UniProtKB/TrEMBL annotation:
A divalent metal cation binds at H32, D34, H65, D174. This is Ribulose-phosphate 3-epimerase. Its cofactor is Zn(2+); a divalent metal cation; Co(2+); Fe(2+). Substrate binds at S7, H65, G141, F142, G143, G144, D174, G175, G176, G196, S197. Belongs to the ribulose-phosphate 3-epimerase family. Catalyzes the reversible epimerization of D-ribulose 5-phosphate to D-xylulose 5-phosphate. HAMAP family: RPE. PANTHER family: RIBULOSE-5-PHOSPHATE-3-EPIMERASE (PTHR11749). The active site is at D34, D174. GO terms for cellular component: cytoplasm. Pathway: Carbohydrate degradation. NCBIfam families: PRK05581.1-4 (NF004076), rpe (TIGR01163).
Length: 216
């Protein structure tokens, strides 16, 4: 089953609790939380206190995407704040195998993220041990960017490897997803779709989620 994971980066921050309750009631499957530190990416967003504060508004899984340097330093804090899945960028962690094990040892699902310019080959040996691979289909750091077309081939590559070594792997795609391209992304092998602008556009959250699911 395809899961829609709205990115709250596109939500109204002044009423974030209400926005999350609305997602819960509108057919969202996962809440995607983009954590940025102003170093790994040129933007700042949420920290642990915000994740902890919004945890009470839904029982949906929190998918915490760490776009930060030295992610291992903060893993335990984000888990304590309410994360259910933590994804870490391959490019930001020199000891990513250790970080994956740290996440799992603390009772959380672990994933690896790769930027558009990173080849699938770089992470192929890690695919058997993670719960999720997140393929960035835009360059990380900002919402509202255009989908990078060669991401589709990367999804296919990951799915081919996962079918051999980790059939339970979730393949998530983040960036530029719309009703026009979600079909080909899912056909390539993705099963968790992050969408920000496509969900929150026009304030029609329920209708927008339904429209995305209708295309798959």
């Amino acid at each position: 089953m395809i899961k829609i994971a709205p990115s709250i980066l596109s939500a109204d921050f002044s009423r974030l609790g209400e926005e999350i309750e609305l997602l819960d009631k509108s057919g969202a499957d996962i809440i995607h939380i983009d954590v940025m530190d102003g170093h790994f990416v040129p933007n700042l967003t949420f920290g642990m206190p915000v994740v902890k504060a919004i945890r009470k508004y839904t029982k949906l899984p929190f998918d915490v995407h760490l776009m930060i340097e030295n992610p291992a330093m903060y893993v335990k804090d984000f888990i304590d704040a309410g994360a259910d899945i933590i994804t870490v960028h391959y490019e930001s962690d020199r000891h990513i195998d250790r970080t994956i094990n740290l996440i799992k040892e603390n009772g959380c699902k672990a994933g690896i993220v790769i930027n558009p310019g990173t080849a699938v080959d770089a992470i192929k040996h890690l695919i058997p041990i993670v719960d999720m691979i997140l393929i960035m289909s835009v360059n990380p750091g900002f919402g509202g960017q255009k989908f990078i077309e060669y991401s589709v081939e990367k999804i296919k590559e990951v799915r081919t490897i996962a079918d051999k070594v980790n059939k339970d792997l979730m393949i998530e795609v983040d960036g530029g997803i719309t009703t026009d391209n979600i079909g080909k992304v899912v056909a390539a092998g993705a099963d968790v779709i992050v969408a920000g602008s496509a969900v929150f556009s026009g304030g029609k959250v329920k209708e927008n989620i339904a429209a995305l699911k209708a295309e798959v």
